[in-house]
Amino acid sequence: MILQILAVSCLAFFANAQIDVNSCTDYNTTVDKCNTDNTIDGGNPLTWASVGMFYSLPGNVYCSAANKGNFMKATECIQKAYIACGKNDFHKFVSSVDGIKGGVEYYCNNYEDFDMNCISELQMCAKNKAPADQTMPTMDDEFNKNRDYYCGHAEHLGECINSNDKLKNCAKNKTMEIIMKIAEELFPPACDATSFVISSVLLLVSLFITL
Ligand SMILES: *[C@@H]1O[C@H](CO)[C@@H](O)[C@H](O)[C@H]1NC(C)=O
Ligand SMILES: *[C@@H]1O[C@H](CO)[C@@H](O)[C@H](O)[C@H]1NC(C)=O
């Protein structure tokens, strides 16, 4: 399970950007409480890494009738703790608490039609679209530098979702629509979603045409 989480940790799209939880004193205690208050039968306690990629957790376990409510509450609780560790406005570059909540609910209602393997190239695709000399900013960098980095990434990801062949050819053919909806939920509040929403509208139109 730990290996699985490490293997896919590069797939967290927006939720875990630049907030430094290691120097945030109450964070671990709060996360522990989020987990003990909302235990998942047959699942593992959640961390900031697994909340950022909730769509990689097995839906048949985490979204079962018995667990779904706690899964939603635990992810929401951890995202809130994570955001609280951010400085100034920097939480706007990570997914909002409502976004995580909406994303988890959507995933739980659709996981049977979703194949995680089909999105394995997206993060690299988005990375390759970034300027070669771009370095990852920190909370100490100015707002604009972070905005260029994270909002650029978000837009590139939207382009990749629409154009990646592996995803297009996914045998579970609703995977593309599902990851687009999830990415929309997780879209960082600081970024202008216009182009992203336009590309997802185009995607839905093109799905409609192929039906
Ligand atoms: C929080 O937990 C992580 C992982 O268990 C650990 O590496 C880190 O040092 C802890 N941070 C604090 C501030 O206690
Ligand atoms: C999607 O997959 C389902 C089940 O495999 C199939 O019945 C359907 O025709 C496919 N739809 C498209 C648009 O390819």
TrEMBL record:
Signal peptide residues on this chain, from the entry's feature table: 1-17
Record keywords: Signal
Superkingdom of source: Eukaryota
The protein's name in its UniProt record: Uncharacterized protein
Species: Lottia gigantea
